Amino acid sequence: MMAGSTLRKIKSRSWKKPRHFRLLEDGLTIWYKSRWSSQFKAKDIEAVREGHQSEVLLSIAEEFPADLCFTLVFHGRQGNLDLVADSPEEAQAWIQGVRKLIHKAQTMDEKERLDQWVWEWFKKADKNKDGKMNFKEVTKSSVFVVVFLKHSIILFLQMADKSESGSLEMKQFVQFYKMLTQRDEVWKVFQDYSGDGEKLMLEELESFLRIEQSEGEKGPQHAKELIDRYEPSDTAINQAAMTLDGFQMYLCSPEGSIFKPNYLELHQDMTQPLSHYFISSSHNTYLLEDQLRGPSSLEAYIKALKRGCRCVELDCWDGSDGEPIVYHGHTLTTKILFKDIITTLKEYAFKVSDFPVILSVENHCSVEQQTVMAQHLRQILGDMLLTCVLNGQIPEQLPSPQDLKGRILLKAKKIGDVEGCMDETLTEFSDEEEMTNGDSDSPTKENPSADKKPEKLSRELSDLVVYCKSVHFHGFEHARTHAKCYEISSFSESKAKRLIKEAGTDFVQQNKCQLSRIYPSGFRTDSSNYNPQEMWNVGCQIVALNFQTAGLEMDLNDGLFKQNGCCGYILKPKFMIDPNIHFSPEKPEGLIESCLLVYQVISGQQLPKVNQKEGSIVDPLVRVEVYGVPKDQAKDETTHINNNGFNPVWNETLNFVIHTPELALVRFVVEDYDKASRNDFIGQFTLPFKCIQTGYRHIHLLSKDGTAIPPSSLFVNINISEFT
């Protein structure tokens, strides 16, 4: 693998091109020759799959045996890379080699990551590739020149050039880099608590943690653990002290992050009814792109499930050979087999989370092919599929995620109730909202109410619906007197918004005992998304989004579900589950204490270039956005810093009053300011208000796709207090 080899890159049955792949000297980057030279880093790879574990490789299975094939799966929305080796031995060398690279990238500590980043800059600036960087190469490097005056660079170079050779080797360059990147803002905080200006003794670090970080209750043992964990100097460790390097490493670590580390773990009560949780949910899960012509793919289900999605959608239609298919009906989207999706779900449903997966079935199939669907569900899923009520009891409330661990639930129409069954088929006028998933205004779907054809359900499929029986919504008054806990209604985004405006409190009350599903308008043919916050404000659990589309809406979804172990279930606030509390998102006063949120945006570090042209430098600004109940919707931003994405310093304070903290999400956005056009996106980070750690914290930025872009970060000081 180190020397490189030629592999076939496969895009389709007809597109199979040999490409030379090799590992670069940094040990973490793979280069390959395409029409243009391309490369990717080990940190970008999520996993390696052996054999025919992609639709493309399955399509060429007769031509290439499984032991020659493997797939590189990337983080975020980047497409997979399907490869074929010349021999099983070569395939295994690459498979095992890449897995070692992934492990190495995942286990690097903060110091190792920084060292790697510095090494990459050294290689980039070493134009003549002699393993040294002469003064001319440094002063021509736009990264440094735009941040520091040329004479300052020369001075630092001379200080680092101990041998007076006029060039720097790698070790000397690291010293030069440290001089350039001395972070005065961190040094000042360090100096405030250091008695001798050189180190923080144990009691001094404990004082910092108590006063600034609100971690006083953890005591001196916690301070000692931080020294042992982050201090690079053995001498300082023996003195129970932390140097500036160790202090900076702590601030950049998960414990110095803005996100409370214990909230990242599974920590919520998972024994309450399903209706008491927000559930990570996907719309038209099978699509990778738009709603009209895009490809349908099993990979879309895998990616959604790996992001913690717990409710996936299948639009089922009759296949020409008796096998049900899934696609966006009456469009040019490609088709995939229902049974292949179920096989994929069996393998991937519980890799990220043990809690239940809901299959939301939009059923357009004949009775005969519905029966085939039922057979596939039973035969492929086996005991995973929930086919009867738990404990043989007629439910008065929905079971909990804990009760349903490792189970798959079917959401669809049902003949009769859970309490008893009716005739073999149910004939009724079709329900426009349910049968078209609410897209009666969609240009891509027929309106089934036009001819009022009766719908027939297969008894075999109907019997698999237990706790998620799809029903038409007849109004909140009807629901109060007639609804069963296992019934679920679906609402288009426009209908949901109308109900929220007309009867928000009633919507909250209904969602305390029943599930509600919201889905995008049929006019969103580009797979864009609506803002889910408005739906969460009234307790809607299954707020389905197009997972394939990056942007604000998915940032909010990812931010909400990042907590609680990314398990896909988030317990709603008490005022949204207690039947005796009547909460209105329009008038939340009196139920919750308001908070004053104060952000001091101090600085940024190594913000990536948006425009990759040589010499292009960003003019960064930071915007803080709050999403929650209507009174909490707010945003404010810093001024922009001219020509400095390397180490911009703002030292600006932004204030927000949060009236309903339990529902609020906070999004940090960094943009490249442009006075002549729209600002360019650089990075963002979104998290629930209740997950924020106060004090001096780093915010590690994410790309538009939601993947990390180390070492890019913001340094902030956060204070939260009661607002009166």
TrEMBL record:
Residue intervals of the C2 domain: 577-703
Stretches for region Disordered: 427-456
EC number(s) recorded for this UniProt protein: 3.1.4.11
Lipid metabolism listed as a keyword: yes
Protein known as: Phosphoinositide phospholipase C
Lineage, highest ranks first: Eukaryota, Metazoa, Chordata, Craniata, Vertebrata
Catalytic residues (UniProt): H283, H328
Lipid bilayer topology: Peripheral membrane protein
Pfam families xrefs: C2 (PF00168), EF-hand_like (PF09279), PH (PF00169), PI-PLC-X (PF00388), PI-PLC-Y (PF00387)
Entry-listed glycosylation sites: S163
Biased composition (Basic and acidic residues): 442-456
Span of domain EF-hand: 113-148
Domain called PH: residue spans: 1-103
InterPro entries per UniProt: C2_dom (IPR000008), C2_domain_sf (IPR035892), EF-hand-dom_pair (IPR011992), EF_Hand_1_Ca_BS (IPR018247), EF_hand_dom (IPR002048), PH-like_dom_sf (IPR011993), PH_domain (IPR001849), PI-PLC_fam (IPR001192)
GO cellular component: endoplasmic reticulum; nucleus; plasma membrane
Organism: Gouania willdenowi
Chain sites annotated for binding Ca(2+) 4: I617, D619, N643
Binding site for Ca(2+) 3: N284, E313, D315, E362
Localization terms from the record: Cytoplasm; Endoplasmic reticulum; Membrane; Nucleus
GO biological process: intracellular signal transduction; lipid catabolic process
Binding locations of substrate: K411, K413, S490, R517
